[in-house]
């Protein structure tokens, strides 16, 4: 009964309680209180700042009615544009702690948050915390706040999920906060301009999910032995997750990077990843073969590689195949090419014979899927090299359509590239085993 009732907004929850004595009993059992400024004040986001006083009055009135009760969830979503909110936010945080709240959300970002200076953010009241009052917190989302932990801060002992968004804090302070969240399982740090290294020294043995988006970092390093998923979006930087022996999936999206530098960095920082997705927006390809690099992805089985090829790099496409040398157990490989017309049938660059005999076979590769195949010599040599050295290959798909980065082609306007299709069929006919299921689109 409580599960059903807890999904209702506060007004409907109160109205439903008059139906029966049984329903009225649910009021005292861990209700979920969610206050959204737009819904409470019945206005749009842009005019919400004009109704701050009314929002404060409404929240205070409802919390007063729940005084002394256990509150499982408290959510407050209001634009932080008036300093009058500070005292009330402190009171609401104190209320949540006294009510043994498990899930706390403070979403305070204004409609036009890009124009707001960091000094306008709400300072989270660490001084209100004590071991007994915060021991019930299990999930917390903080948006548009400032984190300055006091010297008395000893951590959130039972916090399992933490989402920090547009938070103003030094990397050192965030590292200090995280180092004292020993039971943290899920962490997202979103658009927090730290401009420094984020190094968390304390072991986060329960952390299984980590996401970092657009945080202007120079380094990321966590000691998380049970981490299963890592997601990163931002500029190229060193990532240190070498202790994460159980890392199942990593999704890396970089603004820019030199291909072989990125690969070496990932080999050092994510050596145990099993499934890797790599996107590099402004990609630089150089004639670098990673010949003498002893580092390996010792557990990697699946790779998704998204490559936007600029005109100047067409002749270096084949160099990207050197990444496979570091993946001795690769089973599924997807390469999604995007770019402009410069690589359509481009007859430039090295041939696969230039590899010599240094490259081992890809004995475990079973599935190969290439999209955006436009018949450039580098693409064709890449394809033929892999096929010739993959004795266990079962399925091969070559798609002349650009499937990734479709924003460069209006919907339905990309032409079918008949020449590339014919080239693929002709080139593969003499080397591909009959046991391989071949699809050329």
Automatic annotation (TrEMBL):
Its recorded name reads At1g61320/AtMIF1 LRR domain-containing protein
Reading the lineage from the top rank, the first entry is Eukaryota
One Pfam family in the UniProt entry: LRR_At1g61320_AtMIF1
In this chain the At1g61320/AtMIF1 LRR domain maps to: 62-406
Q: Which SUPFAM superfamilies match?
A: RNI-like (SSF52047)
Q: What is the organism lineage in this UniProt record? A: Eukaryota, Viridiplantae, Streptophyta, Embryophyta, Tracheophyta
Q: Which InterPro entries match?
A: At1g61320/At1g61330-like, LRR_At1g61320_AtMIF1, LRR_dom_sf
The record's listing under Gene3D superfamilies reads: Ribonuclease Inhibitor
Q: Which organism is it from?
A: Urochloa decumbens
